[in-house]
Amino acid sequence: MPDTLEQAIEKLRSLPAGRRRAAAAVIEDFIANDEGPVYVLSDDERALVEEGLAELDRGEYATAAEHDARIADILKRWMKSDMRRGLRAKKPS
Question: How many Cα neighbours within 13 Å face the side chain of 12?
Answer without folding.
Answer: 14
